[in-house]
Write a structure and sequence with these properties.
Chain A: Keywords: Cell inner membrane, Cell membrane, Membrane, Phosphate transport, Transmembrane, Transmembrane helix, Transport. The complex is a heterodimer. Chain A has 16 helices and no strands. By secondary structure, chain A is mainly alpha-helical. In chain B, α3 packs parallel to α6, α4 packs across α6 and α6 runs parallel beside α7. The chains are: A mainly alpha, B alpha/beta. At the A-B interface, α12 and α13 of A face α2, α3 and α6 of B.
């Protein structure tokens, strides 16, 4: 039996279970209601329907999920037990290649065999797949009937079907939310594990405080000392994300938030705010080539014109400026929220004293909104230092430790991309360095986010 | 409303309104109110919720300007000068006509900075010493000095509700206004704090023209000498407080006073 047909069948069984259980509950409850006792009836008939339908479907589907994972192993075992498999070569590599080929032919994904040995295994494969497929389907259907029948016998007027169904819904929601957490934990664990391997090859102090970054030389066998000093990367990241980008984003974001909340007429605000927020929806790769192809060459020409040495066509300034523009909506919308959260009465109080709008903004609104704005800026910084595409395209690869914004610098994210693109050996320090960099980035952005959210939360409470 | 039912039209009023209409969009909130307010008396505006008394109060220092949809017609003068004329600077107007709000709204700054805010923005005091004098004087007039003199640099928002409201009154006084508008200043306060504010209003009377909007008729009777009764955007009756409460001439006033509606 094919998968889709089986699922249709199960769905049909579920529907029948729902309808019949509901009808049964309705009938029994009508009788029970006639006794006149209010507690004779508990759940609406629909809940009984769901209860039985879930008992019909859930065990069968759970079983099929498990089966789908163990069946291929069983199939392979069955094939290996076949006499035709005795002539297979012993080494794992060609063995699994032949088995794979036979499986492809058996399932119809491939028309003919390159290896004559595979041709002989096709029939056993087909038979085994068929056998276990039918077994799985039959077991699933039996389970569906068993579950449905068990639940159906429990349909009584006072059976608490609603409670059960709602408990299951809650459990499903819980699993959904746990999934995200489990994923995060998994990511952190893999980061920690790979970083640990890296630090067993490279001294953590050399990594965190070393100033020379040349992983390629380490890969070419010049040793791990002095090759993994990440300070130039950290500096490049801070220089671009936390300094240049913020110099652009903070004033512009703040000013646009002030304009939008305090001065703009409602109709202007209505179209300007979404337009500004659209900036946040532009894919970062678009910003990236804008920075690399438009801004960077212009900046280099400008730098050469005013006689700055070391001007490069990939510069910290180009990446930082464009990243700043990208971050503007972020800062602006956080600032907008916190300014709007300052009570109107505060504004009225100041205006009624004869303060002008700008005095009110400078002396009352901004100070009152400051914690929220600071929180927003911290979030923006954490976003900026984790940003990858713009710096990959516009900031360059040279690990320079420089204050010259026209020079090329590199960042943590850029280097991670560099280290992990192309063919990798996962036992070299060069590749593992990417995980250590990722770990540092993760820890820093996590701390920034925690601090920012705390600041913002504390400040929200102050007005509620 | 016409002058006929406005027996207190006086020769030299501090503020006077003539046929003032206020619209919020298409909705008319005030339907032609004429009234005079003088220096020597506390004037109370009473009336049921939504009758327009707060709206009218806010036209007197143009706080309605901050509401985009609001439109004011008619004439309001301060010392004979039209406050809605283009030559009137709204900043100066509000320095002369101060306002205290329903809910205490001190700035999230120190007590000292709350009071010093107005004098600073209007350039009334520059040197620290001058400012200290203004702060002390204003807090004394607001009846708050004794309670806060040792903690002037604590946050204004840390005070109790009643103290916060007196701080707001002190803040308004600090810019030497001529008129003080109070929009239900006690509605968020407990009875003891309310009594203190009422006492303060008595003390401030004569120095400033005071207009107070209140829901509480007993309060109007206690603190004011003139009472105006608003209903559905009309000024129904305006007179000496004791007359309004004991001998109203209008049927609607009588119904409201006796608790028939409101």
């Amino acid at each position: 039996m094919t998968g889709p047909a089986l699922f249709l069948l199960l769905a049909g069984l579920g529907a029948i279970a729902w309808v019949s259980a509901r009808a049964r509950a309705l009938r029994l409850q009508t009788v029970a209601r006639a006794t006149g006792r209010r507690d004779a009836v508990h759940s609406l008939p629909g809940y009984h329907g769901w209860y039985v339908a879930l008992w019909t479907l859930a065990p069968a589907i759970l079983f099929l999920t498990v089966w789908a994972n163990i069946a291929p192993g069983l199939v392979t075992q069955a094939v290996l037990a076949d006499p035709a498999a005795q002539s297979l070569p012993m080494d794992d590599f060609s063995r699994s290649a032949i088995l794979g080929e036979a499986r492809s032919i058996a399932t119809g994904a491939q028309a003919g065999a390159f290896n004559p040995l595979a041709q002989g295994l096709v029939e056993p494969y087909r038979a085994a797949i068929n056998k276990y497929g039918v077994a799985g389907a039959v077991l699933a259907i039996v389970l569906a009937f068993a579950g449905g029948a068990y639940a159906f016998t429990r349909v009584r007027p006072d059976f608490r079907a609603r409670t059960r169904v709602e408990r299951l819904v809650m459990a499903t929601l819980l699993v959904a939310s746990l999934l995200a957490i489990v994923t995060t934990v998994g990511i952190v664990a893999s980061l920690l594990w790979e970083s640990f391997r890296f630090f067993s090859m490279v001294n953590p102090l050399d990594f965190l405080f070393g100033t020379k970054w040349s992983p390629q030389s380490a890969a070419m066998g010049y040793g791990n000392e002095d090759a993994f000093g990440a300070v130039p990367l950290f500096w490049g990241t801070i220089f671009i994300g936390a300094i240049i980008a913020m110099v652009v984003a903070i004033p512009l974001g703040l000013m646009s938030a002030i304009y939008l909340t305090q001065y703009a007429k409602p109709v202007v605000r209505k179209w300007m705010k979404p337009t500004l927020e659209m900036l946040a929806g532009v894919p970062t790769v678009v910003y990236g080539y804008f920075a690399a192809l438009t801004i960077a060459p212009a900046l280099r020409d400008f730098a050469v014109m005013i006689g700055i040495h070391g001007a490069s066509s990939e510069s910290a300034l180009a990446a930082g400026l464009v990243m700043g523009v990208m971050i503007i909506p972020f800062v602006s919308s956080m600032a907008d929220d916190s300014i709007a959260a300052v009570p109107q009465s505060m504004r009225d109080g100041s205006l009624a004293m004869g303060a002008t709008t700008s005095e009110t903004i400078r002396k009352v609104l901004i100070p009152a909104a400051l914690p929220g704005v600071v929180g927003g800026v911290l979030l923006a910084v954490s976003r900026a230092i984790g940003e990858t595409m713009i710096v990959v395209m516009a900031a360059g690869l040279a690990a320079n430790l420089t204050l010259n914004p026209f020079a090329s610098v590199t960042t943590v994210t850029t280097q991670i991309v560099q280290l992990l693109t192309g063919d990798q050996e996962f036992d070299s320090a060069k590749t593992l360095a990417a995980f250590a960099l990722g770990l540092v980035l993760f820890v820093v952005t996590l701390l920034l986010n925690i601090v920012a959210l705390r600041v913002v939360k504390k400040y929200r409470e102050a007005y509620e | 409303m016409t002058e006929a039912i406005n027996p207190l039209a006086i020769a030299n009023p501090k503020m006077s309104a003539r046929d003032v209409k206020v619209f919020y969009g298409a909705k008319q909130a005030i339907k032609g109110v004429s009234i005079d307010v003088d220096m020597d008396h506390v004037t109370a505006f009473i009336g049921p919720s939504g009758c327009g008394k707060s709206t009218f109060l806010r036209t007197l220092n143009r706080m309605n300007d901050t509401v985009a949809s609001a439109r004011v017609e008619g004439m309001i003068t301060l010392d004979g000068e039209d406050i809605y004329s283009p030559s009137m600077d709204v900043v100066q107007l509000r320095a002369r006509v101060g306002m205290v709000f329903q809910k205490p709204n001190p700035f999230p700054k120190s007590i000292y900075e709350n009071i010093a805010y107005g004098p600073r923005i209007h350039g009334l005091a520059h040197a620290k010493a001058d400012l200290d004098v203004v702060v002390e004087k204003s807090l004394r007039r607001a009846g708050l000095w004794e309670e806060v003199k040792d903690r002037l640099h604590d946050s204004g928002t840390a005070l109790s509700g009643g103290q916060q409201q007196r701080l707001c009154i002190g803040r308004a006084i600090a810019v030497e206004p001529e008129v003080i508008l109070m929009d239900e200043p006690c509605s968020a306060l407990d009875p003891i704090a309310t009594a203190k504010i009422e006492e303060l209003i008595h003390e401030l009377r004569g120095r400033y023209a005071i207009v107070i909007v209140t829901h509480n008729m007993q309060q109007a009777a206690r603190v004011s000498q003139r009472t105006a009764f608003f209903h559905l955007g009309d000024l129904v009756e305006y007179g000496v407080t004791s007359d309004i409460f004991t001998n109203p001439t209008q049927e609607r006033t009588k119904d409201y006073i006796t608790g028939r509606y409101g």
